[in-house]
Amino acid sequence: MRRIGAAVAVLVLAGTAAVAAGGGASAAPAGAARAAACPTGWGSGLKGVPDSGIVPLADIRTGRHDCYDRMVFDVPGGGDHIGYYVQYVDQLHQVGSGDVIPVGGGAVLEVRIAAPSYDPQTGAVAYPGKAAKPLPGVDITGYRTFRDTRFAGSFEGETQIGLGVRARLPFRVSQLHDRLVVDVAHSW
């Protein structure tokens, strides 16, 4: 009996030494390592930079990434001073009219960007969104977080959209040259 106890102790110590030296297998499942690599400290509160814009919105596009889904607002000539407000709302209320625009998903992210969907000089359409309709040219089929997109309209130089997401997840907003980027994490 003592020999078995001693043999078990030797094996346990040898296994501990092998793991410490890097020779053992990780106890964490592969998915846990991947999840740990994804940032989740972005928060889900209001994010915004006040600024007004006279440069029109040219396009809205989306992309899928390992840790988040991304929405990009292209504002050629907007530089790196594009005003915005991004926040979770219970319902998307169209600015100007107050009308509710239904947005699918477990939570609604309202994005307001200081770039009209029309050319302020001529009044010509710059971005062809239609109120309460999905964003033109944006297909979010197969996305892990995005569920719906709705164009709310442009009012007084600001464009408003609703982004339906799976749940109230952390998000970040980045401003790049001539672009505003909204990333919504896949998990908390």
Describe this structure in words.
- The protein is an alpha+beta fold and 188 residues long.
- The protein is 14% helix and 34% strand.
- It has helices spanning 2-20, 30-36; strands spanning 47-49, 59-64, 68-74, 84-89, 92-93, 100-101, 107-113, 146-155, 158-165, 171-176, 179-185.
- The strands form 3 sheets. A 5-stranded antiparallel β-sheet has the order 1-4-7-9-8, with no helix packed on it. A 4-stranded antiparallel β-sheet has the order 2-3-11-10, with no helix packed on it. A two-stranded antiparallel sheet has the order 5-6.
- A hairpin with a 2-residue loop joins strand 10 (171-176) and strand 11.
Task: Classify the secondary structure makeup into a structural class.
Answer: alpha+beta
Number of strands: 11
Report how far apart the termini are.
50 Å
Figure out the total of helices.
Answer: 2
Q: What characteristic shape results from the CA principal axes?
A: globular
How much of the sequence is in beta strands?
Answer: 25-35%
Into which percent range does the helicity of residues fall? 10-25%
How would you spell out the order of helices and strands? HHEEEEEEEEEEE
Give the strand order, joined by hyphens, for the main sheet.
1-4-7-9-8
Gyration radius, to the nearest Å?
A: 24 Å
Q: Give start-end ranges of low-pLDDT stretches.
A: 1-35
